């Protein structure tokens, strides 16, 4: 990406420097270290986005102290003892790729150094096939001696109650029918036309 410095950009004597390029993984994070000379310890530092510095957008800035400042997905912290400030970006997105600036506020023109940030696309997750355990259950009834039904473990409870109802409505009438048949076969037999003769009185 082409960087347009334009009027008012200053890197005099490398008073503020940083990496020329920086990359980070999509959905990951990156940290940029910006260095400066001792004359700018207490000055405000900031992180600005945009290839044209005059129209770049300030994302986060320090307060002139070493306290860390966070805004949205970006944070900045000034380490005045080591003469550097750190900028961190998290939850990176592909559209975060752009030109950013390590910048120091001062009267007149601010000090800035461009950093080309690129985002490495995250690998696509392979589609994993979902497998479901299937259980075969054989239900025996009077009308059909062997009926095979397939169900999953998650539906076993519902199937059990249904199976119980099937047994009630099929087996109970069957048992009653068999009992009636047995009673019918064993009923007392009467032979029509045969009458017992009275005993002799002699």
Automatic annotation (TrEMBL):
Gene Ontology CC: one annotated term: plasma membrane
Main subcellular location of this protein, as a coarse class: membrane
Gene Ontology molecular function, alphabetical: transmembrane signaling receptor activity
Membrane topology: Single-pass type I membrane protein
Keyword Amino-acid biosynthesis listed: no
Residue segments, region Disordered: 1-28
Name of a matching Pfam family: V-set
InterPro entries documented for this protein: CD300_family_receptors, Ig-like_dom_sf, Ig-like_fold, Ig_sub, Ig_V-set
GO BP annotation list: immune system process
Domain of life where this protein originates: Eukaryota
Residues of the Immunoglobulin domain: 19-120
Keywords assigned by UniProt, alphabetized: Cell membrane, Disulfide bond, Immunity, Immunoglobulin domain, Membrane, Receptor, Signal, Transmembrane, Transmembrane helix
Cross-referenced SUPFAM superfamilies: Immunoglobulin
Membrane-crossing residue ranges in chain numbering: 163-186
UniProt subcellular location: Cell membrane
Family stated for the protein in its record: Belongs to the CD300 family.
Name of the protein in question: Immunoglobulin domain-containing protein
Lineage: Eukaryota, Metazoa, Chordata, Craniata, Vertebrata
